[in-house]
Specification:
This protein has helices at about 10-15, 30-40, 50, 65-75, 95-110, 125-130, 150, 160-175, 190-200, 220, 240-255; strands at about 20-25, 40-45, 80-85, 115, 135-140, 180-185, 205, 215-220. It is α/β, with parallel strands linked by helices. The chain has two domains: about 10-235, TIM Barrel (Alpha-Beta Barrel); about 240-268, no CATH class. An eight-stranded parallel barrel has the order 1-2-3-4-5-6-7-8, surrounded by seven helices. Helix 2 (about 30-40) packs across helix 4, helix 5 (about 95-110) crosses helix 6 (about 125-130) and helix 8 runs parallel beside helix 9 (about 190-200). The longest helix is centred in the C-terminal third of the chain and has 18 residues, at about 240-255. The protein is globular, with a radius of gyration of 20 Å.
């Protein structure tokens, strides 16, 4: 069966048909190519690259230039999936003019097809402004990593009545502002289910249980390429870190023993 390029209308059609959406965060050409060939619906160039790729403790140091650089690499690899780029810290919090300009850069310079930004009711005006500039926006509420200091760490959100009601209001504000989808991160499954039932746009869960419209994981986490300690919501579908270490150790042995390169690896 021939695959069609995923588009915003295609996402809306799939959601209306009750099809669950599979999203993956990837940061470079080879990982994006693998995800795309596997049939992923949405590829996100996340500001989590600051942690996964650069080794920082938070996402706050990531710049527009870094996101654009990684987006360009991903776009060159993708034929089918919808490409969404994260808006990094301070690229949209300083006002609608800056937000529109920076979102536009991700499309014009990076080649993204949509942007994602964190925040609910407090960012509704910004989301609406970007959408009105004909730039599709994916929202992100719950555990929002750019708010790490206010939250006091990577903590599950919405566990008490006040937090629960705030997230329900945030989700409604994001939808009303014109977002085509919203990521729900680090919230109780029952709350994610309630939010999903109230919205008319897809909810993409990460640490938000099963009763959402789709799921997102990080490429390196899914394949077991990250560190040994993983959040509860991560499922490792392969263990490539251990396999990679073993392969490199074998290479080292063969070099030291003079086994590699062999005749078949030598030009004549």
């Amino acid at each position: 069966m021939e695959r069609k390029k995923v588009s915003i209308p295609g996402i809306e059609k799939a959601y209306a048909a009750g099809e669950r959406l599979a999203m993956l965060t990837a940061y470079d050409y080879p990982s994006a190519a693998i995800a795309d060939q596997a049939g992923i619906d949405i590829i996100l160039i996340g500001d989590s690259l600051g942690m996964v790729i650069d080794g920082y403790d938070t996402t706050l140091s990531v710049t527009m230039e870094e996101i654009i650089y990684h987006t360009k690499a991903v776009v060159r690899a993708v034929e089918y999936g919808l490409v969404v780029s994260d808006m990094p810290f301070l690229s949209y919090q300083t006002g609608t003019r800056d937000a529109i300009h920076n979102a536009g850069r991700l499309l014009k310079e990076g080649g993204a097809e949509a942007v994602k930004l964190e925040g609910g009711k407090n960012m509704a005006e910004v989301i609406e402004a970007i959408v009105n500039a004909d730039i599709p926006v994916m929202g992100h509420i719950g555990l929002t990593p750019q708010s790490i200091h206010r939250m006091g760490g990577y903590r599950v959100q919405g566990r008490d009545e006040k937090g629960r009601n705030a997230l329900i209001r945030d989700a409604a504000a994001v939808e009303q502002a014109g977002a085509f989808a919203v990521v729900l991160e680090g919230i109780p499954g029952a709350l994610a289910q309630e939010i999903t039932s109230k919205l008319h746009i897809p909810t993409i869960g990460i640490g938000a249980g099963r009763e959402v419209s789709g799921q997102v994981l990080v490429f390196h986490d899914l394949l077991g390429l990250s560190g040994d300690r993983q959040p509860t919501f991560v499922k490792q579908y392969a263990h490539l870190k251990e396999a990679s270490i073993g392969a490199i150790q074998q290479y080292i042995r063969e070099v030291k023993e003079g086994v590699f390169p062999g005749p078949e690896h030598t030009y004549k």
